[in-house]
Amino acid sequence: MARRGPNEGTIYQRKDGRWEGKIFVRYDLDGRAKTISVYGKSRKEVQDKLRDLADAKRNNELIEPHKTTLGQWLDYWLENHAETRVSASTYELYYSLIRLHIKPILGYIKLLQLRPSDIQQFYTKKLKEGKASQTVRHMHTVLKGSLKQAARESMIPRNIMDLVDPPKIIRREIRPLTREEIEVFLEVIKKSYYYPLFMGYLFTGLRRGELLALHWRDVDLEKGTLTVTETLNRHKRKDKNERTTNTELLFGRTKTKSSRRTIPLPEVLIELLREHKAKQEALKNQPDTFYQDTDLVFATQKGTPIEPNSVLRALKSILKKNKLPQISVHDLRHTFATLLLSLGENPKVVAEMMGHSNASVTIDVYSHVVPGLKELAVKKLDAFLKEKGPAE
Q1: 300-to-107, 188, 256 alpha-carbon distances in Å
Q2: pTM score above 0.70
Q3: Co-location of 139 and 49 in the same domain
Q4: Among 15, 103, 196, 243, who pairs with 107 as Cys (CB 3.0-4.6 Å)?
Q5: What is the pLDDT of residues 94-128, one digit of tens each?
């Protein structure tokens, strides 16, 4: 017969001689009572176990037994948390990392059995496979965020990621154009349809998607400024069964507060944009024109958004034809930053123009590729001291 002591659940002896105890946890969405059962050789053993469960329940530390695997949890987390809180491009990155890397190796492990050593060994395996440290660091971000939510929802006692060391980031070597290469580049891009666009990348430091998303409403040619608010990227599209089918170009808000910025333009770019706008207006006003007025600063000859990969292909073709280094569109952004720094510009100013979160990011990324920064700083100090004269 069931017996109950003060502040404990139901305790009774089973037919096999063992003792069993049950404690009420909560009601589910259908109104059914959810309980946790414990077992022991004596009533006292079961009583002690129930008392521990009651204490954990009072302290909101009670974890219900479950068989949810990490893979199942990651699917839940993606749909119910990540998809509504991060940008489309970040969501796609998380989705790919989970599907291609995390689930095939760690997905079968039950959440309650996952250990820090499992995660640490996973990182080591991926790095040995040749995955970039930054990519593995993104995996760390996914696991830490998803397991933090699991702890919040009482699926695990605590976030074990607090005990896991993320991989050290080894940045890939940046290859900006030299001053001599910039001169050649400026000459050979003049005949390209993307000439104004390439000039924009080289003299604004905007990211590829930021410049492609730029609208004329974001540009003030009188003040000589442009404001970054959106980005354009190709994203995967899903059907009604959540299966990835094809992709589409989508505009989206920039991810961070520092990415939303207003920057001044050099005179040469202002004049080029004036000419570029006049040519666009001429296309719009042609009889029987097929040009769509999308207000985009940089568009196809029909006025539609430019495919990001088309820009890269055009750039690669120009570089190859003129025997210039095979750099990416992003390296034009790097060229902008290194050029300003080599001219002695304050890293904080460069950081603001680049959309970095702070100047330390800029210094960390570019200081080793800008020769003579320390020497330049000393020369400025030397000039100051000579101007002021020796201290008396």
Answers
A1: 44, 20, 28
A2: no
A3: no
A4: 103
A5: 999 999 999 999 999 999 899 999 999 999 999 99
